[in-house]
Amino acid sequence: MEWLFSWEVVSVVVALLISIGLGVLALDDFKLAKLFFLAAAADAVGGIAMAGTKSIWPTWVTNLAVVFASGIIGLIALQSLRYVDRKKQAKTERPTAPSRRAHVVVTKIEFSRLGPKGFVNIWHRNDGDLDAQIKGSVSVIFPKPPRDAKEFAEMTDTFFNQMLQAKPWEGAPKLSMPPHTDPQFVSAPTIPPKPELMPQILNGELLVLVLGRFAYTDETEVEHHTDYCAFVQKDVHPVGYCQQHNEAP
Length: 249
What we know:
By secondary structure, the chain is an alpha+beta fold. It has five helices and eight strands. It has two domains: about 5-90; about 105-240, Immunoglobulin-like, CATH 2.60.40. The protein has helices at about 5-25, 30-55, 60-90, 150-165, 200; strands at about 105-110, 120-125, 130-140, 175, 185-190, 205-215, 225-235, 240. The longest helix has about 35 residues, at about 60-90. The two termini are about 70 Å apart. The model has no long low-confidence stretch (mean pLDDT about 85).
């Protein structure tokens, strides 16, 4: 027994048991790997206890050293078992497939000109992985310029909420948009409801505010939407984009 738990034997046996444990772990035999790791820990504790019987230190020092060293071996054994559990979990868990969906984004909003022959074009494309079945709406409004950013945000919120309540896109025809193709555009005229407002638009007394929504689905039957909001004042350049209502979740 003394020879069996001598450091010469224990060091070789512990190394051999750990090596075998790692080998069977590589073969996905998790129970057997735990068994070899526990056997290695038990042999190491036996060697420590045997060494304690030969110690020339005072008994209390020897006992303290044996308990401390055995505790370290116990912690190492516990971590080895947790390591096996993590390997088992990583092996048995099935990876979640990446989400595939259509994803419509607005790439650019441009105004050709203002007035009876003018149009605003909303360029958009499908950056997703699936075909999009899309309905869209474009609303063109001619409000007075707000005094500051806060009033502008309140104004756009008001108009946008009115549009959401009306849901104009629901009456639009449904179009198919394949993924990863060139951008397409929808257009709306920039004609004021009253011709006498045209001078005010051209001199900047009125804004040309355009906002809308693309509502779309794909083969997953989940409905998504993309919102946009932009404006110009006095000229078609530059196009300003609202701080809100330009989202493509």
